[in-house]
Design brief:
The protein has about 600 residues and is mainly α. It has 31 helices and two strands.
Length: about 600
Amino acid sequence: MGELSDNERGVLLSFAARVDSNDPGAMNNLGVLYFRKGLYAEAIVQFKEALKIDPRFDLARENLQYLFSETGTEDPDVKRWRKEAEDDSDNVEALLNLGVSYQNMGRFNEAAETLGRVVEHKPDHTMARIHLGCVLKAQGLHQQALEHYVYVQDDVNKSAVFHTDLGEVYYNLGRTEEAISELRAAIKIDADYWRSHFLLSFAYGDNGNVQEALEESRVASRLNPSFQNTEANLTISDYGRGEGEEAIGGAKEIPSLESTSFTLGIAYRERGFFKEALKEFKKALEEMPDRDRVHIEVGKIHLAGDDLPKALKAFLKALEVNPESGSAYGYLGCVFHLQKEYNQAAACYLQAYRLDSADADAINNLGVLLYQVGLIEDAERMFKKGLNLKLYHTELNYNFLTSNILKEEYLMAENLIQRLEAFMGKSALLYEKRALLNYKLNRLTLALFDIESALSLDPNHSDALFLKGLIFLREEDLQGAINTIVDAAKIRKRYTGFDFLLSIADRQRTKPATVEKVLPFEPGDDLIELLNAGINRRFDMIREELTSIISRGANVEDTECEVEEKKDTTNAESIPLAEQDEIDPLAELKGDL
């Protein structure tokens, strides 16, 4: 970014007086321009002014948080409020403002600690509890957030934003009917708040009300602040910064990052309506053909549907547009991993890790590959690093749990199961893991109880059936064991309870993406050397592998926006009889139990 001349700086600063003080969109756009020109303090002022006018303007809030995160700039208000709080530890309002400033910066741990002090001093402080609930929700601590929202519910029952946030918490806790009730209440208060409609489309989709879900997503897209007032409201992240894009007086001359088709495509994808999503992304590619984000979204759909060749094409196209896309490298690593191209997977995971060392998904997947090649201590360190960054990451927790069961650290495994239950609630997978632990500890009655609990939630949970068959064998019920194992093998041909979970494609798959705990062949020295170099942050080793990967994308055709119907090949009935005769579904259990 070139140094601004005094004249350029003066012209830019003069825009602030010319922007409509009642138009939050114009202020947001001016903030984007200031950010792009390096005038960070001035950008902060504009984003904050936009939020004062319209507290629901989520794009301005996201831009503000992105600015703080990307530049390392501290909110000027933080210094002021921190000093006032230090001078007077009982100054509740200073603590509140300090907590909100941390929240605006995206520093949620500090925000939660500071706002928590306000609630301790003054339990009935409505705004402190609302902000603390928002912070906890942003951290994924939905049960804790719910306690604060419910506490102040009677005081803010006329706020559409509050009902929407509460509905989001209920939805993430799996309490869908309560979520729908809150979101409807929000829409009754303010039918133009797009987030209420957007979240309601999720809840309707989960209840199987497909038409209602589609209609709500269309309404949300129409109302999204990115497109309101027929002018483009801009985002500062991932924005193309070509020449001639600085006009502020006429925002219509500046193209929006996201087309309406792109936003609608994401809404469809997140609800599992993949064909509809791809149609919208195809339109988005025509409207914004140089955007790597569109290719990534298309790739995620193909990856969720196990169409690995199309997913590969899409992610390579994304890297062609943006060679520094950590997300594209992370997803590309998943494709290679599932295709058993382990050197390429390692290079992509390490590059994603290099570009963002706090990416919990990349850390998880890298840890899985480390475990598979036998670098178990390094894998466990990677899992711990990821959990330190994101304590409630599902795949990291399950993988760390599996590694502890495999090395017979049963007390730690029991603690991990309790933590998983605390933030995930009941699930067939969790019951099956507890049954496995109880089996290992020779608590067969408890193991059977957990197995039946798993099967009550998912009758087709094959690993629970395999475990049940093993217990029957131990109890010398041979016929019961045979019948149960045959039933399990009809669902899935082998026991997968010791498999590891990949973090993949926003968890939109019908089944988790799993890989076995060891590679199907002895890993080569080159793969071990590559991984060792990467985890020691010697990323020079991956350069040659990445060059080879990028060259594969040179002749890739345009991303295909079609979904092919695929048959489930995991059922034993679809396996040739000759192969079925060779399958030992309990081979893994025999080896580890």
